Amino acid sequence: MRFGVNYTPTHGWFHHWLDFGLDDVRADLDSIAALGLDHIRVFPLWPVFQPNRTLIRPRAVAQLVSLVDAAHERGLDVAVDGLQGHLSSFDFLPSWITTWHRRNMFTDPEVVEAQGAYLTALAGALAGRPGFLGMTVGNEVNQFAGDPHPDPDRITVEQAERWLRRMLAACERGAPGALHAHASYDRAFHDGAHPFTPAHSARLGAVTAVHSWVFNGTARRHGPAGTATEAHAAYLVELSKAWARDPHRPVWLQEVGAPAPSVPAEHAPAFTRATLGYVLDCPDLWGVTWWCSHDVDRALADFPELEYSLGLLTHDREVKPVGRELARCVREWRAGAPAPEPRRTALLLDAGDEESAPLRAVCAPGGAFFEAWARLAARGLRPAAVLAQRAGDAEHLAARGITEVVTVDEAV
C-alpha cells in the first residue's frame, strides 16, 4: 500500500516552473517527508515544457529530473503527469493549439504526434531514475472533451480510446515497464454522453486511477458526515472494478481531499479518517495520494476559494490538523493493518452497453445505483459493483470473491 500526496509548491504554485528554485522544492519535500508519506505526484506545465510544437525545453526537463532526484533523497518516489492540461480550475494549453492555431487536441495528427513526442521525452529523461514510478498521461484531460468545458474538443468514444492508447504507448516507449496510467475526473463515470468512459479507465494503462471529490453533489445530498460522503472514494474504487477485465486490477486513488465548505474545516480530520477507513477496506487498492501537499498562497489571485485550504500543510509549511490526522492514519495502517477481505455482496449495475455505458448517470450522486450502493454501505455490507452483463458469469464472480448479487430495488 502506498501513501502519498499531490505536490503543490509553496513558492509560486505550479508557476514555479517559470522561476524554478531547487532550495524551495527541497524545503517543501522535507515537510512532506516529515508526514511519513512515501510518494508524490508532480505536474509539469505543458506550455512551459513544450512552448512550440517542435520544441521541448531541455532546461525544463532537467529541472523536473532534479526534482525527482531531490524527492528520492528524501525517501519519496515520484509519479509525473504529462499534459497539464487542467489544474485547480485553470487550463494550461500551449499557444500552438489555441486561438489562431485552434485544433482538436485529441484528433489533429500534428498535435497528437507532438503530444506523444513530449510524453516520450519526459518518460525517457526519467527512465531508470531511482524513485521514478511512471507517467500519468495528464491531469483530468477528459474535461477538454465535452461539457461543461466552455470550448471543448468534441470526440467520439472510439477517438478517445485511440488517443489514450497512443499516449500510453508514448509513455511506454520512453520508460518501458513503468507504472503508466491516465486519469479522468468523475464525469467519465457519471455522464453517459461523455467520450471518456469507465471502460477506458478500468482497462487502459497499468492501473485504474480515480479522483474523489465530494463537492460533486454528494456532500450536499448526504452531509459531510453521511456514509455516502465518507465512503465516496471507496465507492469510486469499487465502481471502477465493475468494468475491469482483470478481477484484481490495482486501483489508485490518485486524488482525494476535504474541500470546504462541502467538508467544514472543523470536520476535515474526521472526514480524512473516515475516508481512509472506507477506502483501505477495498481489495486491490494500489495506494492513496491526497490532494494536496500545501495550501495555495493567497497572494495568488482568482482561484476558487476551496483551493486555498486543501493542503495538508499551510503555505508556510506548518502541518494542519488534517495533515496530522492523515499521518496518524498512515502510521496506524503500517503498524499492522490486515489485508481487506473480498467483498462478497455486489450491487447489480445496468449502465447499458459495456463499452460506451450510455446509462452511467445512474452512478452519479442522486442516481439509482449510487444511492442504492450508499444504502448498502450504511448497513455495513461492504458492497462491490458488478455489470449486468457479468452478473451471471460464475467464473467472474468467483474470481472477485462475490457470492451474492443484489439489484437496486432490493437494496432498501
Automatic annotation (TrEMBL):
UniProtKB keywords: Hydrolase
Name the UniProt record assigns to this protein: Glycosyl hydrolase
InterPro entries: GH (IPR017853)
Gene3D superfamilies: Glycosidases
The organism's place on the tree of life at top rank: Bacteria
Record GO terms (molecular function): hydrolase activity
